[in-house]
Amino acid sequence: MAESPLFPYLGFGLGLRQSHYAYVAEHQPDLDWFEIISENFMELESGHGAPVLRYLDTLREKYPIVLHGVSLSLGSSDPLDFVYLQRLKQLADRFDPPWISDHACWSSVDGIFLHDLLPLPYTQAVLKHLVERIERVQDFLGRRILIENVSSYMSYAHSEMSEWEFLSQVAQQADCGLLLDVNNVYVSAINHDFEPWDFISGLPARRIAQIHMAGHTDFKTWLVDSHDHAIVEPVWELYRKTIRHLGPISSMIERDENIPEFPVLFAEMALMRQIAREALDGTPVSSCAT
Ligand SMILES: [Fe+2]
To answer: pLDDT tens across 155-170, in order?
Structure first.
């Protein structure tokens, strides 16, 4: 398998969720890596959280663990939170993740945290702002990070470029990687009426280190990135086309609501692995194979 020139290739993984801790420890499933939500583990250094960290220590002996954040608020006009970053760095020192990721978004204003991943205006001024902040984060952490495209339900009349042009410029100017959420591309494409392949094919391939796959909720006139359903066929088709275009990219599935038993998610991960392998072989596949 080929590797990204910037990040290692990990294979196929899942987002680790609390309801699956016991199953994973007992069965040690045949997958390549896990992604954890950084904030869930950043304040557990002592007291009642210590057993959870020791659980991860043991898991880390068998699987690489990638850190995925949801609170960095990289695009905000608020100051960067260096207390948060110090905690993130401590977590990274403990688990030696192949990479750390967060989102190309804003989540706070005037110190008020909005608990959402909100889209940015795609302007030259915001581009410069985001690049400077990613550079400061990378300098502090001593490593490149990945930034992820968010799903969106609104856009700004004064945007000066497409989202994919914006992300491409950010990645190249900040010298960071990209986490491509294929479902987010699909959700935003439906909501904003653009062609999802224009988005994916417009990104710099060598910067893409990871893919997120997930399910969404279909409200008929718009989609919501809810992570509470199985992945739908049009998103599998986009994934298939993406892997054919990019080659092997570390891929995982996010599920945050309506979480099924672990074997159900594992089967979805196995399907993703099969689709990727057959896409690379060039053979036609059906995502109804399992
Ligand atoms: Fe995602």
So the answer is: 999 999 999 999 999 9
pLDDT in tens, 1-29: 445 678 999 999 999 999 999 999 999 99
Strand, coil or helix: 177: strand
Q: Is residue 172 within 8 Å of residue 208, measured between CB atoms? A: no
Cα 47 to averaged position of ligand 1 atoms, centre (Å): 31
Specify the DSSP element, H or E, that contains 14. Answer: strand 12-15
What is the whole-number distance in angstroms between the Cα of residue 185 and the centre of ligand 1? Answer: 10
Distance 154 CA to ligand 1 centre (A): 18
The rounded Å distance from CA 113 to ligand 1 centre is 20
Q: What is the mean pLDDT of residues 25-37?
A: 97
Residues 6+ apart with CB under 8 A from 7: 98, 99, 144, 146, 177, 209, 210, 250
